[in-house]
Design brief:
- The structure is a homodimer.
- The first copy, chain A, contains three helices and eight strands; from the N terminus they run αββαββββββα.
- The longest helix of chain A is centred in the N-terminal third of the chain and has 10 residues, at about 35-45.
- Chain A is an alpha+beta fold.
- In chain A, a hairpin with a 5-residue loop joins strand 1 and strand 2.
- In chain A, strands 2-1-6-5 form a four-stranded mixed sheet, covered by helices on one side. The first copy, chain A, has a two-stranded antiparallel sheet with strand order 3-4. Chain A has a two-stranded antiparallel sheet with strand order 7-8.
- The interface of A and B includes residues 1, 78 and 80 of A.
- Strand 7 (about 105-110) of chain A pairs antiparallel with strand 5 (about 70-75) of chain B, so a sheet runs across the interface.
């Protein structure tokens, strides 16, 4: 496959692009992470979301530890060619490392961030004790 | 109002946080931009999305030129406290400077980015000739 579609991305100086994972069907935003060229290429080839972990400085095949893979149904690019949106099916129904469905589980209410989503599964059970 | 909620944000070294604007009701992701502390504070106080324009290095009150303001219905913070999601009502139904509803108007299909959303209004008519 030609790599022109990868060349069209306006990567940051660090060679990254932000990626937003949105639940297919509901539109719920589940997480936000970064991809490098290799991660995005592997995402397209495998059909499962692969990110670049900035903290660990390595490819992060989402679900490799938790089993919570993200099957990519569609990918979109924005007008500036510097942000990716993915429609995904979230395996296990849990995207967040805290054991919640979405990473965006805190809502701004009356001047503070309040937790508005339950923990579905204890992280100790997800990642092993 | 206490500013503790602003102190809880993990700003980048440049003092910014990414913000995702999602259409209330449909969940459609309309745009992605950045906020600094002042932009986020003004967003919360005014109820309308205010970003930080990195290219112009100034506050960007969305809609100030186009009239396409974004009324904020809800705001969420992620687990790492470094990304904001806003549920918004998009005035004029157009978020993108290209005159499309969403900035994410290109879909990855058969190895290329294809435009899949129509221009609703000519940008020349939005921003003045």
């Amino acid at each position: 496959m030609s790599e022109q579609w990868l060349d069209e991305i306006k990567w940051t100086d660090d060679g990254l692009v932000p990626a937003i994972a949105q639940e297919s069907g509901t539109g719920k935003i589940l997480m936000f992470a970064w991809m490098n060229r290799e991660a995005l290429a592997e995402t397209a080839a495998s059909g499962f979301a692969v990110y670049w972990s900035r903290s660990r400085q390595k490819l992060w095949r989402k679900g490799e530890a938790s089993g919570h893979q993200q099957q990519v149904k569609a990918m979109y690019l924005d007008c500036d060619a510097d942000v990716i949106v993915m429609e995904i099916e979230q395996q296990g129904g849990i995207a967040c490392h805290t054991g919640r469905k979405s990473c965006f589980y805190r809502q701004f209410v009356e001047g503070e961030w309040r937790v508005v989503e339950p923990v579905i599964k204890d992280p100790a059970d997800i990642y092993g004790a």
